[in-house]
Design brief:
The protein is an alpha/beta fold. The chain has helices at residues 11-22, 34-43, 65-69, 81-91, 116-124, 140-144, 158-167, 181-203, 208-229, 239-250, 255-264, 269-275, 283-296, 302-312, 320-325; strands at residues 4-7, 27-30, 59-62, 74-77, 100-103, 131-135, 149-155, 173-178. The structure holds nicotinamide-adenine-dinucleotide and SN-glycerol-3-phosphate.
Length: 333
């Protein structure tokens, strides 16, 4: 049906489909619910996720994955991390041979502790050179409003990353390429957990010093995990590391930061979950898988540890500061 297919019509899937359509490409967006694809076709709007954003006429939408995937040379996966395996298993036989598979999800799978590109390889059996990852300071609504933004495309196959870069470069979206898939994915997954901690700090009434402390030490523990997994340390000072961390930890648009702020103000996890209205705050689940991954590799991640305890063990966010500040003193690096 189109040269590019985006599977998942949430905030980011819809926005990334718009980015590629605005880059002059034919894009089909698959939505789980027929009502969403019909509304996009009829009204050029995905009102639930991006109210007020007009979608380009060249962006088509369907709820039939067979129709969506027919003839695509690039398939973009835009469903939440913990549902990727299940969804991809259903789509696997429909994937066109040789298509580039692009992951937008930022998380680490519970149980397997795999990054999203590893899940893609696991399910489809494709060579890892065919899998690309997009990450960076990319709050969907700002990009949908065409605010200037940069991003990173990571793929072990540099030529494939450049080809994808050409497909999604336009007047408001500037993607860079890298080959460090591990660093890109670890940066994207960990920043959600650090954003939860920043949200908690904000909800508790703490100011800029606390936020800067969490962002900087959050970056340090993310980079430690990345190094243990074989990432390039420089990736963490780039858009998929520091860039995404700063955007997510500072913006009220971030679902993770917002979720954390609700906890900091005294809401329960269930209340914060209900307030999210089905939109995914990936860090709530990934704090557990990242913590386990860190333990497996002997990496210390104290902020992730505390976030996990708040989200899953009933730890009171008001105790968070004492817990982190009261740790044994040590050199900065
Ligand atoms: N929203 C952003 O600003 C943004 C930016 C960059 C990356 N991301 C990442 O992109 C991924 C997708 O995020 P999003 O913002 O589009 O999420 P979202 O919550 O807005 O929507 C997710 C989409 O997946 C569908 N979905 C939800 N659960 C599903 C399931 N179990 N099976 C099949 N489909 C399901 C929803 O119907 C929706 O279409 C996440 O990993 C997120 O971290 C989001
Ligand atoms: O809304 P969040 O917290 O899922 O963050 C969105 C993007 O990942 C920011 O880059």
């Amino acid at each position: 049906m189109a040269e590019i297919t985006v599977l998942g019509a949430g905030s980011w899937g819809t926005t990334f489909a718009k980015v590629m359509a605005d880059s002059g490409r034919e894009v089909t967006l698959w939505a789980r619910r027929g009502s969403v694809s019909e509304a996009i076709e009829r009204h050029r709007e995905n009102a639930e996720y991006l109210p007020g954003v007009r979608l380009p006429d060249t962006l088509r939408s369907t709820s039939d994955p067979r129709v969506a995937l027919d003839g695509a040379h690039t398939v973009v996966l835009a469903v939440p991390s913990q549902s990727l395996r299940h969804n991809l298993a259903a789509w696997s036989s429909l994937l066109p041979p040789d298509a580039t598979l692009v992951s937008l999800a930022k998380g680490v799978e519970l149980g397997t502790l795999k990054r999203m590109s590893e899940v893609v390889v696991d399910i489809t059996g494709v060579d890892e050179d065919r899998v690309a990852v997009v990450s960076g300071p990319n709050l969907a609504l700002e990009i949908a409003q065409e605010q200037p933004t940069a991003s990173v495309i990571a793929c072990r196959d540099h030529d494939r990353a450049v080809a994808l870069q050409e497909l999604c470069t336009n007047s408001y979206f500037r993607p860079y390429t890298i080959t460090d898939v591990i660093g890109c994915e670890i940066g994207g997954a960990c920043k959600n957990v650090i954003a939860l901690s920043c949200g908690m700090a904000t909800g508790l009434g703490f100011g800029a010093n606390t936020l800067a402390t969490l962002i900087t030490r959050g970056l340090a523990e993310t980079a430690r995990l990345g190094a243990a997994l074989g990432a390039d340390p420089l990736t963490f000072s780039g858009l998929a590391g520091l860039g995404d961390l700063v955007a997510t930890c500072s913006s009220p648009l971030s679902r993770n930061r917002t979720f954390g702020a609700r906890l900091g103000k005294g809401e329960t996890v269930a209340q914060a979950q209900a307030a999210a209205q089905g939109q995914v705050a990936e860090g709530v689940k990934s704090c557990s898988s990242i913590r386990e991954l860190a333990q497996r590799h002997g990496v210390e991640m104290p902020i992730t540890e505390v976030v996990h305890r708040v989200c899953h063990d009933g730890f009171d966010p008001r105790e968070m500061a004492g817990e982190l500040i009261g740790r044994k003193t040590k050199p900065e690096r």
